[in-house]
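Q: What structure does this chain adopt?
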Amino acid sequence: MSADIGRDVHLPSEGEALAAAIVLHPHPGMGGDRHHPLVVAVAEGLAGAGVAAARIDLADPDPTLSVRLLESAALSLAAEVGTGRVVLVGYSWGSAVSSWATPPGLVGRVLVAPPVSSMTLGPDDGRPLLALVPAHDQFGPPADVAATLDGRQGATVEIVDGCDHFLVGAVARIATRAVAWTLDQL
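A:
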């Protein structure tokens, strides 16, 4: 793993990267940053499976600016590791931002606990999307997320039992599922 200011990159230990992934944190105004346990677990899991993953900090809560910065980070990482395939993984606020971003080479998105009660998700662009929704989510209950994604091509909603929006006790399960789904898209 190497680090830059505001970014930590996790590289596969062997071989070329299968893809480049950006893993985005919860709302920065509420303490979200690249060091969140889920963000770290997903990035480490992806690198262990052969996908280069960057955890970045987006400090400005403005979704429009954050989408542009996310797209730029994805393009940069893909160029650095020499791949044309990009995956976005976001948790909470990061999932909403990830839903709007369309960097070149985007092959899929994982949205963890998308807060559909307070943020609008991006439009259906036909790319595969996995929404991992806590069974007791306060900011994006399963029924609301399912209704939001209903009819979207390639969208799958999976319920994460036994947790709420803050993912206590579910980080490892969610990270494992996000990695497995990502590999299926490659």
